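Dear support,

We are seeing what looks like truncated structure output for some complexes. This example has two components. We would appreciate it if you could run it in full and send us the complete token output so we can diff it against ours.
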Amino acid sequence: NAGVMQNPRHLVRRRGQEARLRCSPMKGHSHVYWYRQLPEEGLKFMVYLQKENIIDESGMPKERFSAEFPKEGPSILRIQQVVRGDSAAYFCASSPSAGGSSGNTIYFGEGSWLTVV
Amino acid sequence: AQSVTQLDSQVPVFEEAPVELRCNYSSSVSVYLFWYVQYPNQGLQLLLKYLSGSTLVKGINGFEAEFNKSQTSFHLRKPSVHISDTAEYFCAVSRYSGGYQKVTFGTGTKLQVIP
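Here is the complete output from our reference environment:
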């Protein structure tokens, strides 16, 4: 049973380029979360998606960042016109349902490390 | 709103000594509690979780944590650490709100096991 798959694991982009990070949730999971981890900081929530819907994007920067989770295929986190401050580890997580009283655990991928030069 | 505080950013401990990593949380509603471990350049791996029931939770790699509702704490413990336990540990709280799990992480505690 494959876990949450993220690619690429490492990505280098020049300032002004676009970065696309992909996440395939665990089999049977339809809920996807994206988190960002800046150096020496904890994980910060960015966005929560279900298939074809963005449910909560309260942690997403207002500009240049977008996320999608299409009916078919992986979830994509897209960063346009990257700047040095975007350098971070981006983690995707998935869960089988929205949780509730069962307290479903969310499972993390190995992360994608973005370096902007 | 909910928040998590991990007071110790770094904890050095000698090999085979016991360790406790502290975690306090605040929330106006019932929450679920988790500890994750992150090895260098890797993702987060679930160590253990508290959902309900017994307040003493046992996890992988010999770790355990105790939920203390009155003190709003969920400290992580291990009676004897190994070199391989050197990693960063994150405490997290989760609550069901607005139709999904909202998970908030602490800033992490780096455990350094000294030979």
